[in-house]
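[Discussion] Sanity-checking designs against the backbone

I'm trying to build intuition for which residues belong where. Below is a structure token string of 302 positions. I'd appreciate it if someone posts a full sequence so I can compare it with mine line by line.
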């Protein structure tokens, strides 16, 4: 089962067991998002984006790779042209900085408008829940008021200033929370046009189901560490027994934090302090089996 955001938060609370509520809900939220960033470094989200050529060598990252995070994301491969039986990958490219942002600059290739590049890149994972409000106009003849949430979204629902559809950035699930008719306008064709106020709950969780529980443990370890620090610095009591109790709870949560973090590391396959490789390489055969040269990347150009 893919956790919704509230399911994830509840799982973290169940692990931490902060009965005295020493840390605020806002602090717990921040620890969950911090855990998500740490996990993203260990197992980043990989996205595939097909980019249509436009007879140039520069392609704006902000336009084409919408989940790209500067300083974090990496391009793993650029297949060009895409969908060839024998895949061919671009060897010569770089991230080029311009005044208006970052670009992928191809140093040897210039894809035409009839050609496609397939770019695989890394991005941060997303775990969120938000209510999006806006308006949507439709005619009475399509019976839209009786449509399911899924059909609203599948067709592309205009909410506020953007189209809400499933995508790599917002895979869903989507839930239409409310639909309220605002006004009715009769056109010349006697078709009723309805403008509705719509609220959609967008749940986004890109953590693979197999890793959800271990990321909960990582978030719990951050919360437990914060609790250990909170109890260690509690100085409002003048009773010796209370001071001892505070030290005991500090040690208890510190111990829990270590166990919870180790549970996470064991699942990911890392040791404490170990840094995973940022990228991997693969050795591709550069010549055809019969020894002849490639047509597009001959040896004299390598």
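Best answer:
Here's mine. Compare freely.
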């Amino acid at each position: 089962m893919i956790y919704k955001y509230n399911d994830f938060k509840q799982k973290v609370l169940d692990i931490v067991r902060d009965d005295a509520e020493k840390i605020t809900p806002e602090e717990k939220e921040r620890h969950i998002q911090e855990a998500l960033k740490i996990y993203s470094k260990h197992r980043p989200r990989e996205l595939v984006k097909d980019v249509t050529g436009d007879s140039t060598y520069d392609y704006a990252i902000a336009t084409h790779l919408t989940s790209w995070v500067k300083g974090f994301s990496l391009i793993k491969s650029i297949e060009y042209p895409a969908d060839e039986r024998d895949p061919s990958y671009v060897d010569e490219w770089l991230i080029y900085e311009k005044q208006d942002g970052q670009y992928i600059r191809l140093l040897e290739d210039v894809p035409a408008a009839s050609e496609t590049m397939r770019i695989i890149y890394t991005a941060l994972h997303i775990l969120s829940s938000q209510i999006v409000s806006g308006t949507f106009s439709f005619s009475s003849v399509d019976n839209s008021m009786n449509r399911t949430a899924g059909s609203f979204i599948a067709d592309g629902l205009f909410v506020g200033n953007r189209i809400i559809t499933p995508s790599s950035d917002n895979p869903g699930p989507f839930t239409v929370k409310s639909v309220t008719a605002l006004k009715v306008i009769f056109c010349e064709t006697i078709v009723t046009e309805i403008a509705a106020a719509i609220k959609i709950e967008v749940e986004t969780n890109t953590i693979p189901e197999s890793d959800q529980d271990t990321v909960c443990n990582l978030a719990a370890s951050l919360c437990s560490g914060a609790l250990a620090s909170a109890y260690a610095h509690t100085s409002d009591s003048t009773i010796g027994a209370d001071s001892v109790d505070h030290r005991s709870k500090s040690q208890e949560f510190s111990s829990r934090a270590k166990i919870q973090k180790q549970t996470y590391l064991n699942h990911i396959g890392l040791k404490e302090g170990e840094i995973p490789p940022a990228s991997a390489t693969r050795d591709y055969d550069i010549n055809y089996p019969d020894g002849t040269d490639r047509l597009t990347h001959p040896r004299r150009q390598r």
